[in-house]
């Protein structure tokens, strides 16, 4: 459980902190999400990374639809306590709803964003066979 | 130069995107900052990571006071183009204004944030001998 004085500073982003997700084995940065206080506490207490969706205005457990959950290894915060870095074991072939291992699959190359890796899975297959599927709610 | 159609989505954070800074050699996540369109373009065009300071409401070149600049190696963006991942060569012993190699020097341990590394430099020495020093403006 999280101690009462161990709170983060949610004031700078209207109740949210940025959460950087890093693969605990490879060191690869997988995605960036946002957490409100409840999402952060659930992440700590359940061991499953849980974000606050700004577009849907609700909590979402990453992987609850796809099965590609993010299991917490370590949680760090920064000097200002307004961001967290979470090292995880990523279940499944990738975290990105577009089918890539990392959401950061595009690299800037001479002024253009180019894909610099291949898809790790077929997002249509993953998200259309799972219960609770929806285009807007890929998780 | 950045092509005109290669823009990021600045709409979700009132004109900003989150920028994750990762050491290009070690893979360590060093800090998270925010960029507006101009900060991002300056980062691309100068090769020095440039943020937008929310507290001071202006651009700041990371390391302009301390000398601890972040030299761009690679820039990635994510599926939604609302965050960037920048791999850098970090000049100097650390990026954190509190004297640590990474701003993420605290780790959650049984519900408490504990420092899990030693300071890499003395922030008083770095920031009080540099021109343009100020407590609020440590860069």
Short note summarizing the structure:
Two copies of one chain form a homodimer. By secondary structure, the first copy, chain A, is mainly beta.
Largest interface, by Cβ-Cβ below 8 angstroms: which chains and how many residues each? A-B, 41 and 41 residues
The CATH architecture of chain A would be Roll
Secondary-structure element string of chain A: EEHEEEEEEH
Structural class of chain A: mainly beta
Query: What would you call the shape of chain A?
Result: globular
Q: By CATH's scheme, which homologous superfamily of chain A applies?
A: Phosphoribosyl-AMP cyclohydrolase
Quaternary organisation:
homodimer
Structural notes for this entry:
The structure is a homodimer of 139-residue chains. The model of chain A is unreliable at 132-136 (pLDDT under 50). With 139 residues, chain A is mainly beta. Chain A has helices spanning 37-46, 123-129, and strands at 17-23, 29-35, 50-53, 58-61, 70-77, 83-90, 106-109, 112-115. A four-stranded mixed β-sheet of chain A has the order 2-1-6-5, covered by helices on one side. The first copy, chain A, has two helices and eight strands. In chain A, a hairpin with a 5-residue loop joins strand 1 (17-23) and strand 2 (29-35). Chain A has one domain: Ubiquitin-like (UB roll), CATH 3.10.20. Chain A is 12% helix and 33% strand. Chain A is globular, with a radius of gyration of 15 Å. Chain A binds chain B through residues 1-3, 6, 12-13, 18, 20, 22, 26-29, 31-32, 44, 54, 74-81, 83, 85, 96-98, 100, 103-108, 111-113, 116, and chain B through 1-3, 6, 12-13, 18, 20, 22, 26-29, 31-32, 44, 54, 74-81, 83, 85, 96-98, 100, 103-108, 111-113, 116.
